[in-house]
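Limitations
The structure tokens in this dataset are predictions for the assembled complex, not deposited experimental models. Users should treat interface geometry with appropriate caution, especially where small molecules or nucleic acid strands are included. An illustrative entry is reproduced here so readers can see what is and is not provided.
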Amino acid sequence: MAKFITIGERLSTTAPAVNKAFTQRDPEPIIARAKQQLDAGATYLDVNIGPAESDGEDLMKWAVQLLQSEFDNVPLALDTSNKKAIEAGISVYNRSKGKPIVNSADAAGRIENIDLAAANDAIVIALCNGEGIAKDNDERMGYCQLLLERGLEHGMEAEDLWFDPLFLVVKGMQDKQMQILECIKMFSDMGLNSTGGLSNNSNGMPKHIRPIMDSAMVAMAMMQGLTSAIVNPNDTRLMETIKSCDVLKNNTLYADSYLEI
Amino acid sequence: MPFTAKSGKFNASIKTVTIGTGDKAITLGGENVLPFYTFDAPIENAPKVGIEITDFGLENEPECIKKYYEGCTTLAEIAKKAASFEGVDFLCFRMEGGDPNGANKSTEELIAALKEVADAVDLPLVVSGSKNVEKDAELLTKAAEALQGRNAVILPAREENYKTVGAAAGLAYNQVVGAESSVDINLAKQLNVLLTQLGVNASSIAMNVGTATAGYGYEYVASTMQRVKAAALSQNDTQLQMPIITPVASETWAVKESVTSEADIPEWGDQERRGVDMEVQTAAADLACGSNAVILKHPTSIATISKMIKELI
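Predicted assembly:
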């Protein structure tokens, strides 16, 4: 099995500092955050520019070129609801270190992002969700089938669709957590890749609790076959857990210094 | 539906390590396929074969080896003769006399012997220690210094002395560090991590991941090498992508099948043939499991293995 893939989530307009830097095209805060994440072991970096309706294309191009030139063609997930911005980002993207990821498609309004990924030989995060939160795994797997077929029809390889079960917040939806984990197992049994915004589970919890919950969640999810996650790589406890699970799953060969590499 | 062959080529590859200088320099590694899988992708650098001599000269060698060195008395003459045999790509000088539990020769004496050998040949060199970690820390540091400019492999840096040997060979004197782990995949990786953390360039590290004679716990060696190659190629583990050098002769010429004379056990037949068989079979297995170089001793074994490599690549 391949090593678990982490997608660093800290370049997001939801962080005011990043939002400001994107708006002003100020490279330094972007580069600093990217470096922190890569030094901590992130494989991909997510570039969330928000809806970016007015200047999305220009902004995404700027961000892709900035990051790839600064960090040896680091592979990126292009994260925006603006489809043109994603295409613009891919047009300047260097794929020597990995295909771009389109973040994301779903089974409702954003299903065309599958077609976009197919047309551009990209990976796509396929969120198994329609309108509102799926009520059970029958519904999730129905969306999974729909998204998978759409990708295959457009010439994608199944491995380039990374299925997202939609991690749910414990505070409020505690009874759904095992469902999500079972859904990951279903993806895995079908030989499909998977990913998701894992830290959703700990939303609203005290700051010192979140790394603990996220680590427990990633360990259980990796046991179920999760192959990737969108995470904060600067969460040391989480990254140590991922590295340890990679060892236990025989995804990487153990060495005494495994946490340092 | 027509059959479409899928290439077993990997996206990762073994790092290349160059040994020696000038025309005779050799390059190990670089492949992105399993050993000898040239049908998946070309293997640019074929595995290499080295010849081993020791500081004892011919003193402890069996008759069937001695006869090839007829007329040689000094280490320089022995080294020149060794370098002349068909199929020899590099020369390994093993300073076994340094072992405090054996002849316990002084570091000065051994370094003088090493210089004599090094001056006699222009082949790439591998220097091998005394098997004693404390003695080796001193001996191999001096050896790295003595061979400045030769780009030699200094073997072995082990868990107990990697800092001293790694710093001397890899940092101070620009040699190639030979990291030795005895059939322990986790330690093989760990040593490479430690050496790179020490500052040694990853392209100046070769590994000896363990060695045994065929029939003597060999399956552990085979599975270790295979796991190392699997991690390096299929898991793209950069800490295990260093090429592997495997000493063979020092193992195979120590087992009873190779050392027992025909007079003692007539039904076993000719001793020389047995010794060569053990050496050739072990070396062939090492290469099939992923060794990028093997170190042998008998000229017939060297010619045979060299021919095998040429036929397969």
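Some entries come with short summary sentences. For this one: Residues 1-68+75-95 of chain A form one domain.
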